Amino acid sequence: MSIVKINALTVPAEQREVLERRFASRAGAVESSDGFEWFELLRPVEGTDQYLVYTRWRSEEDFQAWMEGPMKAAHQGGGEGGAGGGAERPKPAASASTVWSFEVVQQAAPKKA
Predict the structure, then answer these.
(1) What are the backbone dihedrals phi and psi of residue 8, each rounded to the nearest 5 degrees, phi first?
(2) Among 24, 63, 73, 79, which is most exposed with the fewest C-beta within 10 angstroms?
(3) How many Å apart are CA 49 and CA 10, to the nearest integer?
């Protein structure tokens, strides 16, 4: 079965809009990656300042290939404001990040009527 990666991002209140805008502008950056199955950006409602970035992958190898390829290139060269080329990278919106890894052992979907 699939694997799930959850990146818990600590985001100060004044950076929430910046983080959400950056994710919105990523425009399909992960969706075409081999083995990618699902993405969600979860905004905290109360009791925490942590956003959760949920991704599901066919395998750990697919996730690692994305980390070493497209994700690494996107974070080294640009994101908001263009591709590298001497341009200064924007300050991270999150003040801390922790990645949690899970294997999917059970799953369910809504029953069709």
Answers:
(1) -90, 110
(2) 24
(3) 6
CA dist 54 and 41 (Å) reads 6
What is the tens place of the pLDDT at every residue in 86-106?
556 778 899 899 999 999 999
Instruction: Answer positive or negative: Cα dihedral of 38, 33, 31, 92.
Output: positive
Mean pLDDT of 70-78: 67
Name the E strands within 1-113: 3-10, 36-42, 50-57, 96-103
Tell me: pLDDT of 78 over 60: no
Closest CA to 21 of 44, 37, 43, 4: 43
Give the phi and the psi of residue 52 in degrees, each rounded to 5: -115, 130
Encoded tokens for 2: 């699939």
Rounded to an integer, what distance in angstroms lies between the CA atom of residue 5 and that of residue 57?
A: 8
